[in-house]
């Protein structure tokens, strides 16, 4: 188990106790347990990369659109 | 939660010390628990509301309000009024999922992507977000500059003042105080409502447009599609997913609070839709009087409205623009800081002290500082940036929603709170709609003569 980077300062035992009573374990900054990484299937990876290509392509089209607009304005 | 890694640690059973962040969050949770035990429903809603209203009113930002103003000036009362309601309904469907994810997993959106899909996709999504947020932040400072410019405030002073305000709010180092202060600012988004009333819109026309989705003057043109995208981008954007989920976690919501989280989000969507429609109505006189507003910046709208709503109405419009810019600048810079902390594993809470969370605060203020600085560069293409920001936000949304849908359907982390059939139906429908609109935009960009100009 990995925990978040410690960022705590020494605190009084009574303070520690009531904070633990009020908060759920994952709500403590130093007590969060890391989730296991899920296995990405081929289909999911293709989807992720497909969307990545989609974003890059669309950004290029936005750039083209802007260039056309600026060019038409001259 | 069988997806937790099993290697034990000292902190697993009991963390021996707690941070200031934990103590502050515990105080907030104690209030919630007391009021829940006392059965005070309205008080409980007051304590638990915040992330939903902030994200929705935060997204009614500078470019969004300018987009709505351009819509009113270009098309008047008609198709776009019900369309805006539809976009906020889509926004609610998407944002509700972030409430559940945050309350159940106690992790922000970037944190979950990082843990479940790996660091590669975690850093990718953080990079996309921070880049998109930087562009959006620039437009928020443009709106701040335009809004205050109406009152004769020099650009440098407007930007500096806004930046100092962000610093002052951050300096509270307390999520609750931060949230209440920003909510106080955000409610001024409704300043557009009195301006709309001053234009005396014909109520029968307004009501008819909601039922008939018409008129649509000029039909489907390139300009119409860009404005359509811009209006979607004014309501459904990637930063909203990251912000609301992280804010839900920072506020300390648990599964028991999901119902109130939904109400909070619905209330935010309602208020934001009212403000957006009011903005369209407020600039409709420009459409009626055939005033070309295609190259208007924020401040130009306020000046052009003086003959129709008087000096007071124009002043309210300019103040509304300033509010839209400042609230969004505060929330968007925070979403960048949350994502940075979540992916790099550093403290990421508005409850952190400066000592504990200095990288978090440094990212937040650096993002705001860079954006503010860019606005002051002479001859910077500010109008161009404003126009494309909402379009880029719309185009970047499908990957973000796919991550969201996968996570919210992940039964290992969500258990019985995973998406049910209806949530998936609407979630997938929104994703398909956004991809289709993006593809249409791509086609008309490559083949601009397919549609009339």
Task: Draw up the topology in text.
The complex is a heterodimer of chains A (74) and B (453).
Chain A: H1 13-22, H2 42-73
Chain B: H1 10-13, H2 20-38, H3 41-48, H4 51-59, H5 62-75, H6 80-105, H7 109-117, H8 119-149, H9 155-170, H10 175-186, H11 192-198, H12 203-212, H13 222-233, H14 238-251, H15 258-288, H16 298-344, H17 354-375, H18 382-408, H19 411-414, H20 421-446
Helix pairs in contact in B: 2-3, 4-10, 4-14, 4-15, 4-16, 5-13, 5-15, 5-16, 5-18, 6-14, 6-15, 6-18, 6-20, 7-8, 7-16, 8-9, 8-16, 8-17, 8-18, 9-17, 11-15, 11-16, 13-18, 13-20, 14-16, 15-16, 16-17, 18-20
Plain-language structure description:
The complex is a heterodimer of chains A (74) and B (453). Chain A has 74 residues and is mainly α. Chain A has helices at residues 13-22, 42-73. Chain A is built from two helices and no strands. Chain A is elongated and about 70 Å long. Chain A starts with 12 loop residues before the first helix and ends with a helix. Mean pLDDT of chain A is 78; it is low at 1-8. By secondary structure, chain B is an all-alpha fold. Chain B has one domain (48-450): Amino acid/polyamine transporter I. Chain B is built from 20 helices and no strands. In chain B, helix 8 packs across helix 9. The longest helix of chain B is centred in the C-terminal third of the chain and has 47 residues, at 298-344. Chains A and B meet through helix 1 and helix 2 of A and helix 2, helix 7, helix 8, helix 18 and helix 20 of B.
